[in-house]
Design a protein that fits this description.
The chain has helices spanning 4-20, 24-36, 40-59, 84-98, 144-147, 160-175, 193-203, 215-229; strands at 69-76, 124-129, 135-142, 151-155, 183-191, 244-254, 259-266, 273-277. By secondary structure, it is of the alpha/beta class. The protein folds into 2 domains: 4-18 and 63-142; 145-266, no CATH class. The strands form 2 sheets. Strands 2-1-3-8 form a 4-stranded mixed beta sheet. A 4-stranded mixed beta sheet has the order 4-7-5-6. Strand 1, helix 4 (84-98) and strand 2 (124-129) form a beta-alpha-beta unit. Helix 1 crosses helix 4.
Length: 278
């Protein structure tokens, strides 16, 4: 039996790690972009980002003032867990106090802040049932400078692959510098409207620089990445070669009459952390 206390402790630990220490794949991509960049302003911006990352690690403080909306991805195997929901919720509340996380959660109408980063249906929890005798928890603190630039299109089937590429590119062009590029772009294709957006967000959990095992999707990722980086939006929207660090795509079968396309944009501070309990 995995106790509620262990879940709470793990969630708190993962949030502290996520908001202070950027994953190694993201740091490598940012460093590569810095070394490849030829525009002076772009190099200055990327250099400032890298200095910020180092300072956060040295000082043990969050690397961005927006510590995000608490989103939790859970893989639940053949294990018994004592009150998983309360364990996660209390872990978020504890992290808010101890890290600390900025209290971001508000009532959507009154805008009253809960002060705990928990509230009605928050933290947002996605549960996937898996084989194996473990509980895997991934925390995904999602800042809203990038989240506000997400988009959904219920495309017609005839728009096909070109329609997917065009919609992603249009979404990036509209976003411009608002989501603090260089960004990572998650794309979900197929399913229903809500599934397309969920896949787009889950795609962001993938390792930067690692292509999709499906050859067609891998090629599409590369094509979209090249198109986005040819826009010249660049770091912080001030011009340069690197507008996006990567494009990640997930797909699902869909209805014969539709082609849902979800796009989820992540800022350079692509924070996430995963742990397993048995």
């Amino acid at each position: 039996m995995i106790s509620q206390e262990r879940v709470e402790e793990e969630v708190c630990r993962l949030f502290k790690k996520a908001v202070i220490y950027l994953p190694s794949d993201v740091k490598k991509a940012l460093k590569d972009a810095y070394h490849d960049e030829t525009e002076e302003v772009a190099r200055l911006n990327l250099g400032a980002v890298l200095d910020n990352i180092e300072a956060a690690e040295d000082m043990g403080v969050p690397l961005c003032q927006d510590t995000g909306l608490p989103i939790i991805f859970v893989k639940l195997g053949k294990v018994q867990v004592e009150n998983l929901y309360q364990g996660i919720r209390r872990g978020v509340e504890r992290a808010t106090r101890e890290v600390p996380l900025r209290p971001n959660v508000v009532d959507p109408f009154t805008r009253k802040n809960t002060g705990t980063n928990t509230g009605q249906l928050i933290p947002q929890i996605d549960v996937e049932l898996v084989e194996g005798d473990y509980l895997e928890i991934t925390v995904f603190p999602k800042g809203f400078g990038s989240e506000n630039n997400n988009a959904l299109k219920m495309a017609l089937p005839g728009e096909g692959v070109e329609g997917v590429k065009n919609f992603v590119l249009d979404t990036v062009l509209v976003a411009g510098g608002k989501p603090c590029p260089p960004i990572i772009i998650g794309v979900g294709v197929g399913g229903s409207s809500d599934l397309a957006l969920k896949m787009a967000k889950k795609a962001l959990l993938g390792e930067v620089g690692v292509r999709n095992p499906d050859e067609k999707l891998a090629q599409l990722e590369e094509e979209i990445l090249n198109q986005v980086n040819s826009t010249g939006i660049g770091p912080m929207g001030l011009g340069g070669k690197t507008t996006a660090l990567d494009v990640k795509i997930l797909a699902a079968d869909t209805h014969t009459a539709g082609l849902p396309i979800g796009v989820c944009i992540q800022c350079w501070a692509a924070r996430k952390s995963t742990g397993r309990l048995k």
